Amino acid sequence: MTGKVPVKIAGKGCILTPMRRVAAYFYSHPEKVHFSAVFPGKAVLCAVLFSTFLLPAAGEERELALPLLAAPINATWAANHGEDWYEKGFRGFLFEGLLDDLRLFPTEQERVKRFRLLHADSSAGQEDNTAVIVSDADAAAPDVTGVVVPGHWNELMDEISGANNRLCAVGVDRNFLHIHLAPDEAWFCDPLLLEIAEQRFRLAGQLCRTAKLRGIALNTQSDSFIYDYRWDGYGSDLTPETLAEGTYQFGVRVFRAFIRAYPEGEIIVIAQDTETCGPLWFDLVEGIFDAPGAAEDLPVRLAVLEPPDIGNRSFFKNYPEHVARLLNARRSRNLRVPRRDTGVIFALEPVHYEKDIPTARYPLKDYRPALYAAALYGDTYMLLWAPKGGWWQIPPDMAEQYRHLKQGGVAGVRFAPPVPRTLDAYAPFLYRDMGGRVGSLEVLGQEVEVMKNGRGAALLFWEDTADVLHLSARTGIVTAVNLMAEERLYFTPKEDRVLIPPLYGPVLVEGIPLKEYALPASVGMTMNSPIVAGITQSPVEISIDNSLTVPLRGTLALLADSAYALGAASFPIDLPPGQSASYTRMLRGISSLGMRPEFAISLAITRESPITRKIVFPVAPEERFSFFCDGMAPGALVADPFPDGGQMPLLLSCDVRGRLTCYDTGACAVRWSRRVSGSCTSPPLLLKDSQGDVRAGISTMQGRLTLFNLAGEEKLLLMNRAKHGVAPVALTTEENTGDLLVMADDKDISLYDSRGALTHRIPAPGRAHYLLADPVQPGLFFLAASGGGDTPDAKAEEPDGGGHPRLLICFNDRGHKVWDASFAAGLSCSPVIIGNVAGVGPGVCIGDSEGGIVCLNARDGTVLESYPGKKRSGAVLKMAGVPSVPGGGAWVFYLANKAIHARPLAAASSGEKQREPWDMRVDRPSVLAPLPGGDGLVVGTADGSLYALDTSGALLWEDHNGLGAVTGITLFNSTIAQGSYMCAVCSVGHEVRGLHIRPELLPKVPLHLNSLNAP
Questions:
Q1: pLDDT averaged over every residue in the chain
Q2: CA dist 1007 to 59, 880, 933, 957, 1010, Å?
Q3: What is the mean pLDDT of residues 19-40?
Q4: Is the pLDDT at 62 greater than 60, yes or no?
Q5: How big is the chain by its Cα radius of gyration, in Å?
Q6: What is the DSSP letter of 120?
Q7: pLDDT greater at residue 334 or residue 893
Q8: Which of 103, 152, 259, 963 has its CA 20 to 30 A from that of 127?
Q9: Residue 410 — φ and ψ, nearest 5°?
Q10: Contact between 788 and 765 (Cβ < 8 Å)
Q11: Which residues 6+ apart lie within 8 Å of 30 measured at CB?
C-alpha cells in the first residue's frame, strides 16, 4: 500500500447530534480523509479519536449564539418532540398563546369605561371569564390591589411548567415568553393604561417564574404608529417632549414591574429594525435599558428581525457596534450613569409560505454563512423567525389529540402540511465545537476569525482559500470542516509541516498551535475616541489575552506612527492562562486628513521569536454639528439668508415622516421644525420670489407641497395629482424675476410662481420619471419620461409603469419645448446638470441601463461626449458631475457594478494635462456628491462611511463615524476658516451631521487606493 489511503466509516439511519453528524459524514465519505500509509499507527489513533465523536456529548461548548425559534408553536406538542427539535439545532422557543399582547380583558374594559378614559373595544375573541388574584401593591401604582388574569390561569401555568421541564431535560432549555406591544393604544400618555400594562408585565413575570422560563421577549412593534408624535391617538395638546418622557417612563415602569416579579429573568427587546422606527421608539428602549437600574448582571438584549443584506457578512460584524453608538447618541437621560452594554441578537426568517407550502426565502449558499455570522457576532441567542410556522408537520388526527390544552390562539395545535425535504438544510444545526472567538487576522489575503477550542486554535475562512496554507511546527493532525456540508478533511504533518490545499469556504481549520494564530489575534488596540484632524490628543488602549494553556511572560510594546508620540509604551507582562491585561497611553501629535497612521504592537516572549501585529486607524474630519430627525433623512439643502456671507447659512432637511427642520449651522442649534402630513422621499427645495426672499418647500408622496418662509411660517400649499414620487423642482427664470415651481403628474407639467399662481401648463409626453433644474442654467428645465411624445423610437409606457424612461426633453420657463433626445437603452437614474463643460456652457449627463454615459449641451441637446457601456458593466445607479474650472476640465462620476467610474468630459485644451478615466471598487456605495471648486467628489456608502476623492481618484479624507447608510450629502462653503467647507451628511440612522473640512489639513500627497474600504 502506497500513497494516500482513504478510510470509510458508515453511519446511516441514525439520529445524530451535529458533532456526531460530522463523524458520520467522515465515515461515509472516504475521499475527504487522508492518512500517510507509512504511519499506520496514526490511523489507529484517529480511529480512537473518531469513536469519541460518536459518544454522547458530555458538555457542548456554548460560545456560539444559541438558535431560538420564534413561532406559534404549542409548548406541550413541542415537548413531545423535544429530541427532534434538539437535533435540528434549536435550543429554545419564544412561546405565544399565553399573554400575546396588551389587549384589555373584559374587566379591564369595564374599568376603563368607568373612568371614561377611552372607549372599550369589542371583547370578541377574548376571554369570556376572568379571575382576580391578590398580589402586593406596586409602589408605582399604589391603588392597584389585584391582578386580572385569564380564565384557566392555574391550569395554563401547570401546562407550560410541565412542557418546559420536559424540554429542558433534552437540552431545549432557553424558552421565553413572547409578548407584543399591541394593540395601538395611548400607552405612553394614559395613566390608567399604564397601570394596566404594569399589571400585565407583573403577570408575565409571575408566569415566567412559575414555569421556569428564561424571561420575556417583547416585540416592540417598532414600525407602529404609536412611536410617531403625529398619531391621531394622541391629543393635540401633547407636546413631543411630553410624549417622549411618557414613553421613557412606560419602558421603565412596566419592566420594573416584570423584574420585581421575576428578578432572575432575562429581557429580549425585539425590533423590526432601527431605521424605520419612529422617534418615540428610542425613548422606549432607553427606558427599558434603564429599568434594571444598578442590577448590571440582569441581561437586556436587542433583537433585530431582518438584516438588509443577508449575503453581506460585514453587516453582522459591524451592526452591534453601530447599534451601540446609535442608542448612545440618542440617549438623553441619566447621562452621568454609564450606559450598559447593548447585546444584539440577529434574527433570520429562512422559511416562509407561498400559499400553503413552506418555502425557502434565501439561497442556501447565502443562508448558511449568514447563520454562522449571526451565531458568531450575535449575543448569546439568535432568532429563527417563523410567524406562520413552516418548520413542522402535524396530521389532522394528531391535532385532535391536543384540543384540551389551555395554550391556544395562535399557538393551538392544528393541522400543518408536510415540510419539503429541501428545507432540512435550513435547520440551524451548527458546528458547536468551534469554540470561542479570539479575534481577527488577515490570512491568505482575507480576514479570518480566530477561534479557540479544545484542540487549540482554529481559523474560520468565510470564503474559498486560493493559496496553500503553510503550518509549521506541528506534531498532530489538522482538520478542516466545511461548514456548508459539514465535510471533514484530515491533514497529517510531513517534514514538520502541514500543507492545507485550497479549500471551499466557509471552512474551519482547527488543530493549530495557539501561539501561531490565537496569541497574535488576542493582541488588540482601541481608540477611545476617533483620531480627528488637527492637534491630536486621544487616549489609546492596548490589550492582550493569554489564550495559551501556560503562563505568558514577556514584554508588550506599542510603536506609534512617526507623526505621533506616546511616551513610555513598553509593558512587562506576566499573565496566568485565561487572564487579560490592558494599558492606556495618550496619543499626541498632528493629524492630517487622508492619513491612515499605522501602529505596531510587538509581543516579545522569553525564548520565542517576537510577534508583531500592525493596526491602521483612519483620521476623521472635525464634526461641527449633529442633530436627529424623526426618521431617515433623504437629503438636505442650504439657504443663505445673509448675502454678505458674514454668518454661516441655514441647513434645511426633511425626513420620511414629513418633518422639516431648519438648522443654524453657525449657532449649531435647531431654529425651528415643522411637521406635515404624509411621507417624504426627496430633499426639500428652495424657491426665491421676485424680492429675493427664500421659501423652503417640502413635498410628500401623497401629492402635497407646502412652502414655509425661513421663519417657519407656512405660506403656501399646493396639491399635485401625481400618483408616483416625482419630486418638484425650483426653476430660476432667465430674467431672474423670481423662481418658478415645476410640478409633474401623470397628465401635465405645471409651472407656478412663488405665490402659487399657475403660469403655464404643458401636456405630459408620457409618464414623468425625473425633473431637473439648476441655477447654473437659468430658464431651462428637463424632464425624463417614458412614452412616445413626438419621438417615434421612444418606448411606450408599460401598463404597470415599469421600465426605464427613454426620452429627455428640455423646456424653457415659458412652457415651450426647446429640444428632445431619445435613448435606446433608457435612463437608469436621474440625470445631472454640470455647470461648465469644456467652455461651451452647462451640460446634461445621462446614464443608461447598459452602463453608458452621454453628455449633452444643455442649450441645444447636441452631444458633447459619450462613453458606451461595456459588456456586464451594469446599469448606472447614481451620478455626479464636476464642472470645468481653471486648470481642470469637467468630469462625470457614476456608480455601476459595485464600482465608481470617473470619465473626463470633452477633449482637454492644448494647455491642459491629459486626463485619464479611472475606476475603483467600493463596498456598497449609495450616494455621490461633487466637492466645491471642482476638486473631486464625496462617496457615501451603505455602512455609513464617507470617502472624498480628487479627480484622479486619490483619497482626500474619509469618515467612518456615521450611524447608518448615507442617504444624502450637501457641501457648502464655510466662514469658520478661509477656504474651508462643510459636508452635511444625512443617513438612515435619523441623523444629520456636519463635518468641517479645513484646506490646511488636507494631505499634501494623497493616498491612491486600490479599493475604498475602511482600514
A1: 84
A2: 51, 22, 20, 10, 10
A3: 35
A4: no
A5: 32
A6: P
A7: 893
A8: 259
A9: -65, -20
A10: yes
A11: 6, 7, 8
The position carrying cell 438584549 is 301
Asked if 985 contacts 966 with a C-beta cutoff of 8 angstroms, the reply is yes
pLDDT digits (tens, 9 = 90+) for 340-361: 778 899 999 999 888 888 999 9
Q: Which three cell numbers stand for residue 622?
A: 472635525
Preceding amide of 506 cis, omega within 30: yes
The answer for residues whose C-beta is within 8 angstroms of residue 892's C-beta and 6 or more apart is 832, 834, 845, 853, 855, 879, 880, 881, 882, 902, 903, 905
pLDDT at 791 over 80: no
Cell numbers at 615, concatenated? 493596526
pLDDT tens column, 586-609: 999 999 999 999 999 999 987 778
Asked if 805 and 827 touch (Cβ cutoff 8 Å), the reply is: yes
Give the residue among 875, 872, 839 at the shortest CA–CA distance from 857. Answer: 839
State the Cα–Cα distance between residues 22 and 516, nearest whole angstrom: 26
688 CB-near residues (< 8 Å, 6+ apart):
694, 695, 730, 732, 738, 739, 754
Q: At what angle do helices 153-169 and 191-211 cross, to 10 degrees?
A: 50
For residue 636, give Cα distances in angstroms to 650, 662, 685, 983, 993: 10, 10, 9, 11, 11
Q: List residues bridging with 878 in a β-sheet.
A: 895
Among residues 649, 69, 137, the alpha carbon closest in space to that of 381 is found at 69
- Nearest Cα to 962, choosing from 628, 590, 652? 628
Q: Phi then psi for 432, rounded to 5 degrees?
A: -80, -5
- DSSP string of 897-943, one letter each residue: TTEEEEEE-SPPPTTSPP---EEEEESSEEEEEEPGGG-EEEEEETT
The H-or-E segment that residue 209 falls in is helix 191-211
**What DSSP letter does each residue of 19-85 carry, written as one string?**
HHHHHHHHHH-GGGB-EETT-HHHHHHHHHHHHHHTSPPS-----SPEEEEES---HHHHHTTHHHH
pLDDT at position 37 over 50: no
| Residue of 698, 665, 672, 756 whose CA lies nearest to 970 | 665
Residue 691 pLDDT greater than 60, yes or no: yes
Mean pLDDT value of segment 467-490: 85
- Of 886, 892, 908, 774, the closest CA to residue 838 belongs to 908
Cell matching residue 474: 506541528
